[in-house]
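hiii, so i know i said id send this last week but things got crazy w the move. better late than never?? heres the sequnce for the chain we talked about at the cafe, plus the structure i predicted for it. fair warning i was half asleep when i ran it
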Amino acid sequence: MSEATRTWQGPSAPERLRILRSTRSIAIVGASSNPARASYFVATYLLSSSPYDVYFVNPRATEILGHPVYPSLADLPVVPDLVDVFRRHEDLPTVLDETLAVGARTLWLQLGSWHEDVAHKAEAAGLNVVMDRCVKIEHARFHGGLHLAGFDTGVISSRRAER
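okay and structure toks below
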């Protein structure tokens, strides 16, 4: 979806900080054991540089970074506070349904992921929703760690610079 057709307004920076400060556990849906994948990089950061309990969800994996991987959100041993999603656009409605079924408080769609119908339905059900933002970048931004990944530009964006 292009920027021009976006109508949904996401939470402000103070609201995202409030979400992250109230979060104790994060489930990464679409977690990968492939170090080249963004979900792996985010998982590595969250496990090493954040206070969160991190759980991995992927029906095709059994272990990532020494942690068990669960086939679905319903299989987790806890109700995660935040569901961080690394799935294709067409999978997002199903992930929302699973998030609502387990009772998580926040649905967080990673950089490049935007689904307005999902956002509206999630908010109507009482969830916090964040789209097109990275949990790792937001956590690092609020806690002074952006330089750890070379993101010390002062500008947070998933877009390429226009010429």
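btw The radius of gyration is 15 Å. thought thatd interest u
miss u guys!!
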